[in-house]
Amino acid sequence: MTDTARGTSRRYGSRPTMKDVAARAGVGLKTVSRVVNGEPGVTPETERRVQDAITALGFRRNDSARILRKGRTASIGLVLEDLADPFYGPLSRAVEEVARDHGALLINGSSAEDPAREQELVLALCARRVDGLVIIPAADDHRYLEPEIAAGVATVFVDRPAGRIEADTVLSDSFGGARAAVAHLIAHGHRRIGFIGDQPRIHTAGERLRGYRTAMAEAGLAVDESWVSLGSTAPDRVRFAATAMLDGPRPVTALFAGNNRVTVTAVRVLAERPRPVALVGFDDFELADLVSPAITVVAQDAARLGRTAATMLFRRLDGAGIPPQREEIPTRLVPRGSGELPPPADG
Amino acid sequence: MTDTARGTSRRYGSRPTMKDVAARAGVGLKTVSRVVNGEPGVTPETERRVQDAITALGFRRNDSARILRKGRTASIGLVLEDLADPFYGPLSRAVEEVARDHGALLINGSSAEDPAREQELVLALCARRVDGLVIIPAADDHRYLEPEIAAGVATVFVDRPAGRIEADTVLSDSFGGARAAVAHLIAHGHRRIGFIGDQPRIHTAGERLRGYRTAMAEAGLAVDESWVSLGSTAPDRVRFAATAMLDGPRPVTALFAGNNRVTVTAVRVLAERPRPVALVGFDDFELADLVSPAITVVAQDAARLGRTAATMLFRRLDGAGIPPQREEIPTRLVPRGSGELPPPADG
DNA sequence: GTGCTGATTGACAACGTTGTCCAGAGGTTA
DNA sequence: TAACCTCTGGACAACGTTGTCAATCAGCAC
User: What are the beta bridge partners of residue A79?
Assistant: First the structure.
């Protein structure tokens, strides 16, 4: 007997199988399977022998084979824009927790806001036969998913709707949040308000712009097109856009920032300027209350978005063929100071 | 012919296989495999027929079966403390990027700083036969991994060393960073400096404490034990600890915060107090420069930690049996204001 | 025509697990 | 004693893919 606890009698890189365990315990293959899976119908004595063999060989069930046999992988895929974005941390974590409650693992990937990369990633996950997908879409056409959904991959879109297919969706109330934010600025006396948002092809960016326009229209204010800037959220572009609005022919007295990355850059730009400019940002962020003035934001509940999406996903996995659901998570205006600054006396 | 583009002739939840494709294209199973994998030796005409059948049936290769056959899963596991912690976002993303460059997917899990949960997660990943593991350990005994590593699972520990086994490790220079931070405070005239850190069983917490003590000792300053508090980073506890140090019999004039969560709470506590207290935090965070005063920090390069770890992992996967490596990533003191505040005149 | 070469193709086993089904042991009852 | 259960355990096929190997065929030199 040369086997050790590490199973070193087998060549490096290969692992003991149930067959090896069975041979060592002197039982049949299926009996090992029964013990490993806690199935009934094994005498305590036999079970002990099998357990000893498992420990001695360092056996670990090969889930690839199990998955192949059973069809379910007990894993779900999460495709988002950028794992490093603080908005997605709590969301991922919430999805993970729900997955864990259902005994599933989470496979994670960033699309980097690139439709091609999203599709590549999603299809790779489908090839792995994940049971379900949570997608924060970068693409605007998801027909490539039709065969997958038809084959039973539960799919939930989060934060932005699916493109050109019907599917479960969980959204934040971007429109309402943006409208409330801009109305808030208007209530504090502002008439010339700028909006800096994300790329227009991103759904939330469009919704927030719509909220902005609606609030302005509701107050009877005309929007000067030089007050609106959509595009990359790279600091340079945002800085340029903000500066242009603040120093333009009809300078804005307040800014509405379309997401957390924009807000952060806006805060930096405004900090450099002599006179205070009102600011409301979409998305809350850590320490928003400690900057001076504290930043008024429209807070989204990222964790709730993730939790809702994952719950919906598992409901669909368990259950029957209910038609696609759409759920909306409310947003909440959090006044902290920056949004309550009045316009300058001469503005 | 009742098959449609969705393969609806098959029952819901089941998917076409290579066998189905082969039958439809009128070729052998292996020929389909060759086409799917881009292997040579297939005439253009045959390839076209196979491709047509693939499209018509909505075939997608089942990677579970492929993995079972090939032995490599092209996936790596990442176990960290909390996906929602902003420190781990960039780290995860960096690991993901490297994995992507190597054609691997990332399976992600949070240990919630619970050793049992770490082990459960790691073993689940091993059962999936991930090719490698990147672990930010919560446990302090990793002997349970020995059979896995012996079986060829490339394993790299990040941010904290492995417990009771030899393994590849990538660490930040916690000791050096902490020492530099405290020396910085001392250079600005502080003599009574408090340290609030994470739970003492966490390696980095211990290293940072050691850095603190070393810097104090090097300056010939005795440490009053009421100035040191290790424990949970929950806001309540940190708040309590900070308040006790600031209002104690020998009140501190400066604080050194052991990680980003502590720093954030410390900033809040100090903001409520009438007179300024110097503060240096371990870990950088967004907007640290915009709080007033801006927060001096010891910055760690989380992305570089992740990148280095993942690179090391794939080097080991490709390569031979080099002995375990240990790499240290430097930290960097970023003075921004809060660390340069002098002690009060009467302090 | 024969034999050889190289290209194309397919039959078959194997990967490690689980579900189905059957065999044998041992006990109970008529 | 025979018939009939119950309980335990094992043989075998199947999951969908890939590696091995052999068969077929066209083209070509002799």
Answer: A109, A135
